[in-house]
Design a protein that fits this description.
heterodimer; A: 92 residues; mainly alpha; 2 domains; B: 291 residues; MetI-like fold; 72% helix; MetI-like (chain B); MetI-like_sf (chain B); membrane (chain B)
Chain lengths: 92, 291
Amino acid sequence: MGWMMWTPEVAAFFGCIALMLVVMTVLEIRWPTIERKGWLPIATTRGDRLFIGLLLAAYVNLAWVGLSAEEASVWPGFGASMLLLGLVMWKG
Amino acid sequence: MSKPVNQKALLLIVPMFVCVAFSAIMPLMTVVNYSVQDIISPTQHVFVGTEWFRMILNDPDLQDALVRQLVFSLCVLLIEIPLGVALALAMPAAGWRASATLVVVAMPLLIPWNVVGTVWQIFGRSDIGLGGYVLTQLGIDYNYTAHTRDAWLTVLVMDVWHWTPLVALLAYAGLRAIPDAFYQAAEIDGASRFAVFRYIELPKMRGVLMIAVLLRFMDSFMIYTEPFVLTGGGPGNATTFLSQYLTQKAVGQFDLGPAAAFSLIYFLIILLFCFILYNWMQRLGQGDGHA
């Protein structure tokens, strides 16, 4: 971890992203995605929904960090963003 | 019934992905890493969580720079895209005139960015510059180093001068790719010039215009060199756009943590806008059916 000052938190973050990519690849091979139209305004594949969900999640986290009080925990914002990601993946 | 989308071809980009991983993805990862730390010295660093993000998001200077940047990019798109298309429509289709026009139109694209800044810096001066001198002689109180409005106009006109040719060349390429049969059919139907533009040329140019809009949006959103040379971000902070603010933070003050947090927010904004623009333009095309 000394090299380039990596921290465990950032390692966990990228670990999750790598895991997501692996899971998406496995899902794609096992059950190829079908483009469909949910509540999002455009027809999306599974990967599109992951991208949109992650982008929205990033913005929710930023909004939480930017608008919440000085000492507030980051977890409520994170929880909300993950709920949104789940919703986009499931019904988007 | 809709078919599964075959995405196996994506495997072919794996070698490219590995190269990009070293040149872009890993550096981006280090930016993420630095955005949550306070780097005191090469051996000393403290994990600070989301503190830099909070600081950056609540920084009034940054919010101002962001608003300026959005207004600037919007102006650039609203002027350069229609102007570029109009220019492409007016350019000759073939013969030596076409070649000559192409060379002249492409000229500003060949000039390095800092030279463009210098050219306009001199051009706009009322004592030694042609543009500034003419405006002053006309009785207009023009001074881009002192008046916010003049500085804005100069930066905007400079960008239009520098980059409209790119839009024009792309649109021109799109126009030349339309087979003559379309125009002949339109003539038989007695279509007006506007109808030809609206139902043949515009839909056929959709692809190249999409590239033009995305390129111009991203480039204008990242503009740095020209305003830096021309106005230095002034007067005051009037033409300090996002890149320049970021450079002040990262290089000027060497605040790596806040600069990294800022870079990530910057990246997310560009990602969101490009995604929206791309999908919007895709949808516009679907309305035209065959395009």
